[in-house]
Amino acid sequence: MLEPLTAALLIDAALRGAVVALMLITAALMLRDRPGLTAVRLGLALVAGLAVQVFASAPLIESGVPRLWQAPLVGISVANGLLFWLFTAALFDEEFRPRPWQAGVWVVVVALGTYNCASATAEGAPAMLVQRWLPVLFSLLAITAALRPRRADLVERRRRLALYLAVAGSVYTVVMVALRLSSPHGRLSEPAATLDMGLLLLLVAGLAWKLLTVCDTELLSAPAPLPLPEPAPAVDPEEQAQAEAVLARVRTEALYRQDDLSIGSLADQLGLPEYRLRRLVNQQLGHRNFNAFINGFRLAAARAALADPARREEAVLAIALDAGFASIGPFNRAFKAETGLTPSEFRRQALADSSI
What angle do CA 166, 169, 171 make, to 5 degrees? Predict the structure, then answer.
């Protein structure tokens, strides 16, 4: 019979191997169809960072490898919270792009973790307290990044994934911070290290399962707007009629002009349950995001106003507000993304063409 210590180490090693295998599967799934996506690139960086973390946090490594050799691995592990936040933001926000300052923060966090490990910084020292609580900060940012776009997201599977990542990621972070704070010198005991791998395995397994069961165009945001799928065949004539009625009322009653319009408030005005409106707009009308659906009406109204010679002297801001945009910034970005021109450039071109 195996000695208890040997059995514990074998269980720990098996869990770590399973985590690494699942992460490789997840990486392959993310690369399957869309290797150029921001979310995929950040996901691969996170997988690499977690692989380092899985190796560096093994009990035999923490107890048997000199600190100077462990230090850079610990630094990379500490910075995984930042990568998780950026990956989550890119996964659920189609307009998200990493900023240079975020790369700078990653370098600073790696340097902090490396320094604290190499110099054996005391647990109560300010630098170590910052290291211990940074994962909580990054977890809060990741939760915000997952849940903030969820309200307007019309893809139900992606909405469920956002909730899963927010809950599972926060639970894992809180448990691991608590274990590190309660461990001598921040080193996990063998049972705590095994718990770490068990929780990480559950987190990665859930993400891998979502990627296995959800097609990439539903789950992964594209760096540019995806072509809308063809409307689903109307197996239910009632749903098709309801979808057409939604389009007619939004257009004819100019409901899109309400700058605080949400899917909930629109559902109330239309007399529909919110879940049903989500399904109609997504499955019958082919939209993945409620804000993009409404902005389509707003941009059409703005283009018509900018091309109208009778409104030549009207300010662009007034036209944007009249169309339903809350401010000029989002209007300018949405307008240029759709037309390739600024509103002023579009107006000059449209009015010049109309005078010929």
Answer: 100
